[in-house]
UniProtKB/TrEMBL annotation:
It comes from Roseateles aquatilis. The lineage of its organism: Bacteria, Pseudomonadati, Pseudomonadota, Betaproteobacteria, Burkholderiales. PANTHER family: QUINONE OXIDOREDUCTASE-LIKE PROTEIN 2, SHORT-CHAIN DEHYDROGENASE/REDUCTASE. Residues 11-322 form the Enoyl reductase (ER) domain. One of its GO terms (molecular function) is oxidoreductase activity. It holds the Pfam family ADH_N. Signal peptide: none annotated. This is NADPH:quinone oxidoreductase. Gene3D superfamilies: Medium-chain alcohol dehydrogenases, catalytic domain, NAD(P)-binding Rossmann-like Domain.
Amino acid sequence: MKAWLCENPVGVEALQWKDLPSPQPGPGQLKVAIKAASLNFPDLLIIQNKYQMKPPLPFVPGTEFAGVVEAVGDGVTGFKPGDAVAAFTGTGGFGTEALVPAALALPLPKGFPFEDAAAFICTYATSHHALIDRGALKAGETVLILGAAGGVGTAAIQIAKAAGARVIAAASSDEKCARCREIGADATINYVSGSLRDEIKALTDGKGPDIVYDPVGGDLAEAAFRSIAWRGRHLVVGFAQGTIPALPLNLALLKGASLVGVFWGEFAKREPQHNAAMMMTLAQWYAAGKIRPVIDQVLPMAQLPQAFARMSTRQVVGKLVVVNG
């Protein structure tokens, strides 16, 4: 097999496309021939040694991928060679083969494209867990989505609309805002060219959004939280801007508002039955056409550095996918 190996986590430039021994599945594992993998923001952080999970060196990065089962280990039930699966494993996806714990493999229904499947689990699970579980989103409420043109943002637009919400998508360019409207956003805000607070006030008649979906952090967080509605919920999803904000807690008091942490990976570990039920719901929504991953570009696996370079420009709308064969 071939894979991108990280032997020194100093960034993309240290990754090497190497020949490695083909792995053999142990008890409870699947050997998967990878057809497609997607890039997530943690993939960049982990090869820069900036992520909370620091795998032992060397390792193959790539959190999320889809492919075909080649072999199954002892004790595995429910899977056989030839089955199409997707997985979110934290590492291992940027190569031609990977070992996957059977418990983490999602069976794919017939006709589910590998490119879509590779870009499905992380963003949709995060956004569904955030909006529906942690945010208790109700039909008719207004959701403000920051970083709305990114992977989790585009997923959040679709999930919020499927739940009957009004969606205000905030992004960093007019082009991204236009794409968000195409995906289903009811209104958009370019927070680079305009005032986020003024635009929110105008679009909500001064009431503010019931939910703020925030994967960005930085200086946008306080502006959004100051604009939130009474009893609003500010969902802390991530810090793509790079800075963890320090919010004045008196704002929560004055608005009767909640700061709500969202950590889908830990939720999946601690509450596997609830996570499995959620993934089933998302698969049904996909089959019904309610949600579909927004794919920015599909590149060959061997061009992973170029994909990371595009991610770093902040021009990506949706997800970048790399494919084998």
